[in-house]
From TrEMBL:
Transmembrane regions listed in the UniProt entry: none
Superkingdom field: Eukaryota
Record keyword Disulfide bond present: yes
Database matches in InterPro entries: LOX-like_protein (IPR050912), Lysyl_oxidase (IPR001695), Lysyl_oxidase_CS (IPR019828), SRCR (IPR001190), SRCR-like_dom_sf (IPR036772)
UniProt name for this protein: protein-lysine 6-oxidase
Compartments, as annotated in UniProt: Secreted, Extracellular space
Origin species: Glossina austeni
Catalysed reaction, written as an equation: L-lysyl-[protein] + O2 + H2O = (S)-2-amino-6-oxohexanoyl-[protein] + H2O2 + NH4(+)
Length: 477
């Protein structure tokens, strides 16, 4: 078993190290804590060195495997965006893809040891369920034990940007009831919270949400708010959730001098899923694995297919049942949608003979009536281009010849159903009624006007001979 670690902060490392023996769940791995002994950022041991796990495609399936591997009864919540502070070690694992039956995180598919494009703020974490009867440390009761709450409407909150080169950027400062100005803890700060700030200040939309001291840090203005969590459609930061601030102090658990920073702009893209195209094109196909070798290199099939490839000498003649469909995303915003990775970081894919600029642009998931994920599609990465545009709109972006990638205003990026990986492998799924969810920009890595139209939620009827997708609606990923 490969060791796995949950760490929350390095400030109390010496104190925590003294408790490792007491909180050791088996001989292979331990669980470090500061705020709760059941939560933290995930780290794994490879080549005798600890490394972090990136939050790209990090979801409850992977989180449950981690908690069970650590000896806990189950998962309570997964965390993204360095919720417990930024990653302090190199990233060992990125784009984890687990089916749910794996016993260890390393049994899942991922890009390869050390292969990643992640920033320290993209650390993945978990909050596990407490073991029955397990004692926790009563002495450590920081604000993470407190529930999050909104600031009461009777409180008067003011907000401003400071330290920026231009008026629409800088560190965020807030004050309550005319008191002293303070900054916001950077842990978990994302575009969702940044969008609320820009909207409240009348500066448009968030182009970037940063965790940095570039515009001045906590040494200039002490941290006043922590644990800030917004849905994204609030009109004021006061409506978002925060940890208790009534004691007059707030603790940041990552880089102590880093604070929440935003860059606002009046222009932003806005992607909309074309669910009519999904309903129109959804169908079943039984495909021999001999025709899926390129797709299997990109982890586009269920894990059972790889077991067959390993154990059956005639695996090439085995068929997989695929739910195929066309996915189209229209940019209805007022500026182009561009990948967040620099062009120098794009990856060449030999199978497709072009560069991919985004690892997680779309996700395809199927849920049963109880809300359990029973199947998921997995594309290793994506190439973004103007597949079709409204009349009079010229195409600007093209995947061929290392061209610039993106989606222009009033243009759509269309992934036709006959393309590799444009499917969900449902070979092991029973017939019945399900929910199909197609989401674009699901991890909110690129700024948009709104994320409420980024997912199509549809009814899926799956029978032995056909599949029907209908009653689709637009929702948030």
């Amino acid at each position: 078993m490969r060791p796995i670690l949950c760490s929350t902060s390095s400030l109390l490392q010496r104190f925590i190290s003294s408790l490792l023996v007491k909180f050791k769940y088996n001989d292979s791995f331990s669980f470090l804590f500061v705020f709760l002994p059941i939560s933290g950022n995930i780290e794994v041991l490879h080549n005798n060195k600890w490394g972090s796990v990136c939050d790209d495609e990090w979801d409850s399936v992977e989180g449950r495997i981690v908690c069970e591997q650590l000896g806990f009864p189950g998962l309570k919540k997964i965390t993204h965006s360095g919720y417990f502070g930024p990653a302090r070690r190199r990233f060992w694992m990125d784009n984890l893809f687990c089916e749910g039956h794996e016993k260890e995180l390393t049994d899942c598919h991922f890009d390869g040891w050390g292969v990643n494009d992640c920033e320290p703020t993209e650390a993945a974490g978990v909050i596990c369920q407490s073991p029955a009867g397990e004692e926790t440390l009563p002495e450590i009761k920081p604000e993470f034990y407190e529930p999050k709450s909104r600031i009461h409407y009777s409180q008067r909150m003011e907000i401003r940007l400071r330290g920026g080169r231009v008026p629409n950027e800088g560190r965020i400062e807030v004050r309550l009831n005319g008191g002293a100005w303070g900054s916001i803890c950077s842990d978990g700060w994302s575009l969702l919270e940044a969008n609320v700030v820009c909207r409240q200040l009348g500066l448009g939309y968030a182009r970037d949400a940063l965790q940095t001291d570039y515009f001045g840090g906590a040494d200039l203005t002490p941290v006043l708010l922590s644990g800030t969590e917004c849905y994204g459609n609030e009109t004021s930061l006061q409506e978002c959730l925060h940890y208790d601030f009534s004691r007059g102090t707030s603790t940041c658990h990552g880089e102590r001098n880093h604070v929440a920073v935003v860059v606002c702009h009046i222009l932003a893209p806005d992607l909309v899923v074309d669910y009519f195209e999904i309903e129109r094109t959804a169908h079943l196909e039984d495909r021999p694995m001999a025709l899926m070798q390129c797709a299997m290199e990109e982890n586009c099939v269920a894990n059972e297919a790889y077991d067959i490839q390993r154990d059956d000498p005639n695996w090439r003649y085995v068929t997989r049942r695929l739910l195929k469909f066309t996915a189209s995303a229209l940019n209805a915003g007022n500026t182009d949608f561009r990948p967040f990775k620099d062009k120098s970081m794009w990856e060449w894919h030999m199978c497709h003979m072009h560069y991919h600029s985004m690892e997680v642009f779309a996700t395809f998931d199927i849920y049963d009536a109880q809300g359990n994920k029973v199947a998921q599609g997995h594309k290793a990465s994506f190439c973004l281009e103007d597949s079709q545009c409204l009349p009079g709109i010229p195409k600007k972006y093209n995947c061929a010849n290392f061209g610039d990638q993106g989606i222009s205003v009033n243009c759509s990026d269309v992934y036709l159903y006959n393309l590799d990986c444009q499917w969900v492998d449902i070979t092991e799924m029973n017939t019945g009624l399900y929910t199909l969810k197609i989401a674009i920009n699901p991890e909110f890595k690129v700024s948009e006007m709104s994320f409420d139209n980024n997912a199509a939620i549809c009814n899926l009827l799956y029978t032995d001979t056909y599949a029907r997708v209908d009653n689709c609606r637009l929702e948030r990923p």
